[in-house]
Every structure is written in C-alpha cells, then in structure tokens.
Amino acid sequence: MSRKELRDRAKVLAKEHGYLQYMIERYLVLWGEQETLQFLEACEKPVKTSIRINTLKADQEVVIERMRRKKIILDRVPWLESGFYGDFADTSTPGAFLEHMLGFYYVQGVPSMTTVQVLDPQLEETVFDLAAAPGGKTTHIAQQMQNTGRVIAIEQDRQRLNSLESNILRCGVTNAIVYRGDAKKIQALNIQPDKILLDAPCSGEGLIPLDPTRKTSKTMADVHYCATRENEMLNAAISVLAPEGTIVYSTCSIAPEENEYIVDDILKRHPELKIVPIPLEFGSPGYTEPFGVHLNESLRLARRFLPHQDGTEGFFICKMKKEAA
After folding, report:
1. d(Cα 7, Cα 26) in Å, to the nearest integer?
2. What is the pLDDT of residues 118-175, one digit of tens each?
3. Burial of 121 (0-12, 13-18, 19+ CB in 10 A)
4. N or C: which end of the chain has fewer CB within 10 A?
5. What CATH number belongs to 110-322?
6. pLDDT > 80? residue 79
7. What whole-number distance in Å separates Cα of residue 162 and Cα of residue 137?
8. What DSSP string runs through 215-269?
9. Is the pTM of this model over 0.85?
10. Distance (Å, whole) CA 201 – CA 230
11. Do residues 230 and 251 touch, judged by C-beta distance below 8 A?
C-alpha cells in the first residue's frame, strides 16, 4: 500500500469509526488492515468487569459465596491468584455492594492486576509504587506481602491522594507509607527498594474500550509529551533500585513511543538492566520493529494486551532486573 493509499484508507476508516485519522494510519502500519479492523470492532465491545478479592480483609471462598448469594457469579482469571471476572450487568455497579465498601474486593482491570502478579512482591521487601493513585496496585502489593515489609506509595496529584489514602484504609493495608511528591525526584528519599512498580501516567490510548472519547482527544504531541515524562520517571526509578532488584514498567497505552521505545532507550543508558521473561500465559510479545524502527530483541519478552486479542483494554508490561555491579 502506497503512502497515498494508506492515507486515503485511513481517512475512510477514521470517518466510519470516529477516530482521528493519524491514529488509523498508525494502526494500519503496525498491524495491516485486517487486524486494524479487528481492533476497531473490539473497541466497541464492553470489557468484562473484573475484581480482585482482598485476602487482607476476607477469605476468598467466603467472598465468592457472598457474591453468589447476590446472584453475582465470579469466574477466576486463569493467571491471577485473586482476580475474577464478575457479571454485574443486571445489578447496581460493583462499587455499590457492601462487600466492596468493607474492602472485601477491589474493582480492578485485569492488566492492572497482572502488573503486580508480574512484580511478585515478597514478604518483608521494600517496594515502591510510583504514580500510585487511586491505589489498586498499592493495595494489591500489600496483599501479596501480607502487610509485611514496606510499600511506599508516591503520588504527585494532591486531589488523587484522597482516593489513594481512602482505598488503603478500606482495604486494611497497614504496611504502606504515602508520599506526595514527584516520582522523578525519588532519589531524595535515600531508599533503595527491592522492587518498583511504575505504571506510568500515559496518553491512555489503550483505554478506548472504556473511554471512547480517547478516539479524538489526543494528538501525537500528547503522546510525545507523555513519552518524555515516562522516560524521566523510569530513569529516576532505575537510579534508586537496589542491585539485583526488579522493576516492572507498564502503561495503558498501545503507542510504541510510550512503551518499547522507552524501554529500548533505557536499556542503552543502563547496561546493568536486563529484560526478564514474564512466566505467565497471557498477551502477546512486545514489538521489536514497530514502524520499521529496530529495537532491542529482548523486548519480545515484554507483553502486550490488546482488545481484539485478549478482550481487555490495551496495556503494556515489561519486567526488568538490575544486575549487581
């Protein structure tokens, strides 16, 4: 397909599906027309509601039975220890149930839960959760650590701190410390964490199935702005990570500029950092030649969620380990 043919076809599809033309052009280059159409169709379908049962507050089987009595059947997400799909379509919202208010479960997307499963925090470790609000991953990390060790949740947005602190309290988390501050300046804390989760603020292009306004709300300038900030945050995180520590980088963007390009640049600047396999069956490999740009081959070890392949919002997850000096 010539450049003109690509633009013409993208213009037609953008008008049909309500997207900005530049987005469709990029999808056609990344995936070809057939997969692009599959993606566009999948984005019109609702994503299954998922929850994480919070074992800090309740036994898993007890919650399953309580919800069953309320005619909510929970189906386990195969690769998640505490993640379940639930059909709340014929009831009130999942956040309105008493069990939610008591902290027995947290309404959380499957990719979001997967980031913590991939991080695999252990008892008594020190873990940073950067850009932590509203607290789904912070409370999940604490749950995995059984309220031992330290979870240091860092959030810059003052308004979002309220939801973070509220969810920590609701979920019975007692090992978390909340800091309001810029994650790019975490060196000032003078702490070397064993593990870091950076689910970075991004353009949100993967959220189209959840937020259709994203079809027209961002330009490439927005993507590049987010990418610059993400690169700075990831670089700062690596600088404080303990030797032999683990970092998981994730975004809810499908743009390679916010995902593979970021990690590729970081690997060039930090030879002590290596991408490691994610031992879970989900998603598809990261890209190594998006838009014809050759990137580090180990990016195949990263994982992508895509609506037309996985039935979730779009997401990117990469797990890296910092080698000892």
Report:
1. 10
2. 999 999 999 999 999 999 999 999 999 999 999 999 999 988 999 999 999 999 999 9
3. buried
4. C
5. 3.40.50.150
6. yes
7. 15
8. GTS--HHHHHHHHHHHHHHHHHHHHHSPTT-EEEEEES---GGGTHHHHHHHHHH
9. yes
10. 7
11. yes
Question: 320 pairs with which residues across the strands?
Answer: 247, 275
SS3 of residue 98 by DSSP:
helix
Domain boundaries, the chain: 3-42, 50-107, 110-322
What is each CA distance from 14 to 27, 156, 170, 204, 256, in whole angstroms? 11, 36, 43, 18, 20
272/175 Cα distance (integer angstroms): 30
Task: Classify domain 50-107 at the CATH topology level.
Answer: Alpha-Beta Plaits (3.30.70)
**Residues annotated catalytic, as ranges:** 252
Residues 6+ apart with CB under 8 A from 159: none
Sign of the CA dihedral with 128 first, then 130, 133, and 135 last? negative
DSSP state of 94: G
DSSP string, 262-325: HHHHHHHH-TTEEE----S--SEEPPSSGGG----GGGGGSEEE-HHHHSS--EEEEEEEEPP-
Instruction: Indicate if 110-322 has the same CATH topology as 50-107.
Output: no
Query: Which residues have a Cβ under 8 Å from the Cβ of 308 and sit 6 or more positions away?
Result: 35, 38, 39, 41, 42
